[in-house]
Structures are given as C-alpha cells and as structure tokens.
Design goal:
six-stranded parallel beta sheet, 6 strands, 17% strand
Length: 140
C-alpha cells in the first residue's frame, strides 16, 4: 500500500483511503516534508500545502477545501507553529469542522489549552520513536 501525495486535489481519492491534512509552519517545512515521505507507506492520501496548492490558486480557499475533505489533521506543533496565524487558523477550522487532530510536538513549546485534551506524539527527543508511534496510530 503506497501513500499518494497528490497535486490534483481529491479527485483520485480511493474510497478505502483516508485523507490526512498536514498543518505546519512554513519554517518547519523540512520536518513536514520528511514526515510526509516517512509515513508514505500506509496507504493514505497526504494533503500538504506545497503539494496541493498550485501557483495562482487562492490559498485560503485551497486550505478550506483541504480541511473540509480531510479525515483528520496532523498538527506539527512548534514555536514556529504557535506564532503562525495560518497554523492557528487551520487547527481552529479543523476543530470547528469536528476533525480529529493529532498534535506532533517537535520542540518544547506547550500546546494551546484547547488542544491539551488530545494526546499528541512527541518527536522532540527521538524522531524515529515518534514516527513509529504515529504509524501505529495511522493503522487504527
């Protein structure tokens, strides 16, 4: 089973696959792209802005569509994400849309109070251990 990172939206989404929206600060883009590649064998479709938003597209419209169509969100949480208006808009929109959110902590910044009810995955100390825990979560 291969993950499909598409650049054409959701038209080719198989019925038995989930769409995973990856929310991250652009400053954390290297981590987000590494993560996308590393979880690429679990059969899900990954929605990440660099791959989904074409030049000339209206960013906010594309993000809204991505959140509406996703099954859940992986929120890459860092000091950069905390300070990003876009990341805050994305996870707030996902909450309003009643999407499941899995926070992925990549540095020592605390989650917002509203997200502390959700058990996240710690990538701070050991990336590979965090990745294995995330892969187990994606299998369920």
């Amino acid at each position: 089973m291969n993950s499909k990172i598409t650049t054409s939206g959701f038209r080719s989404r198989p019925n038995n696959h989930r769409v995973i929206f990856i929310s991250h600060s652009s400053i954390d883009n290297a981590f987000a792209l590494r993560l996308t590649q590393d979880i690429g064998t679990n059969g899900n479709t990954i929605w990440i802005d660099d791959q989904q938003i074409n030049p000339g597209s209206i960013w906010l419209n594309e993000i809204n569509q991505g959140i509406e169509k996703c099954d859940f969100m992986l929120l890459i949480w860092s000091e950069n994400a905390k300070n990003s208006e876009h990341v805050n808009l994305e996870y707030t929109s996902a909450m309003v849309a009643r999407k499941s959110i899995i926070p992925l902590m990549i540095d020592d910044v605390d989650l917002p109070i509203i997200l502390r009810r959700v058990r996240g995955i710690n990538f701070k100390a050991d990336y590979n251990q965090g990745l294995q825990e995330l892969k187990r979560a994606l299998e369920n």
